[in-house]
Amino acid sequence: VHPPKRHLLKLFGRTVSEKRWSQSWGVSYAYSGATNPARAIPPASRLALLLETVNQWVVTAKEDQEASRPYNACLQNWYEPDDTIGRHADDEREMRPGMPIFSLSWGGTRRFVLRAKHNPTQEKTELFLQDGDLLVMGGTTQETHYHEVPKRRVT
């Protein structure tokens, strides 16, 4: 169940409501001029299992040079048909540069778009993420690309 209210953000000096529902788990997350206050991760929940699985994968894949500092937080987003998140990169200061960002889809299929930051003529990459799909944005993805979940196309 998503939170009762949508979070407020600061975009270009204006206070606006997020165009999706979101909840931070484990550690509060600051982005777009606001802080998404964290709720505790319930023990033995699907979220706790997901974080445990991600941490095992990262250590096994040797992706994390600081394996003693496991993932301890999650930002959960709920997208209704008209909901969206605009083009952005996850580059907040509290995030470790180069660490993979994992995105697990639950629910309906949504379009996920990647675009090069410094080469606007480069073709965009579109993925249709379905229930259960795991997307990993690793390496320099946040430095080189923007990503977004655009509004659903009405046909």
From TrEMBL:
| Gene3D superfamilies referenced in this protein's UniProt entry, alphabetically | Alpha-ketoglutarate-dependent dioxygenase AlkB-like
* InterPro entries the record matches: AlkB-like, AlkB-like_sf, ALKBH2, Oxoglu/Fe-dep_dioxygenase_dom
Q: GO MF terms on file? A: broad specificity oxidative DNA demethylase activity; cytosine C-5 DNA demethylase activity; ferrous iron binding
The UniProt record gives the binding positions of 2-oxoglutarate as: N77, Y79, H88, H147
SUPFAM superfamilies in the cross-refs: Clavaminate synthase-like
Q: Which GO terms describe its biological process?
A: DNA alkylation repair
The residue ranges of the Fe2OG dioxygenase domain are: 70-155
Supply the Pfam families for this chain.
2OG-FeII_Oxy_2
Quote the protein name from its UniProt record: Fe2OG dioxygenase domain-containing protein
